[in-house]
Specification:
Length: 70
């Protein structure tokens, strides 16, 4: 998870967490940039605030969207 740019947006009353295409690629190196972006958008669009966003969520969404072809 990228933290380099988050702290400049954090305030006393808010924090920001950032997930990047590089994070997706760590889990799924075979995906293209565009596919990684689509995974992030899907994660954001289907976000459940009770569960949050985690490595497991990103991985599950990526495999749902782009199953391994055998």
């Amino acid at each position: 998870m990228s933290e380099s740019n988050c702290s400049k947006y954090d305030t006393e009353d808010e924090i920001f967490i950032s997930w990047t295409t590089e994070d997706v690629r760590e889990l799924r190196p075979e995906l293209t940039d565009d596919q990684c972006r689509k995974v992030l958008r899907k994660v954001k669009d289907d976000h459940d605030a009770n569960l949050g966003i985690s490595w497991d969520i990103i991985e599950n969404v990526s495999y749902d969207m782009y199953p391994i072809q055998v």
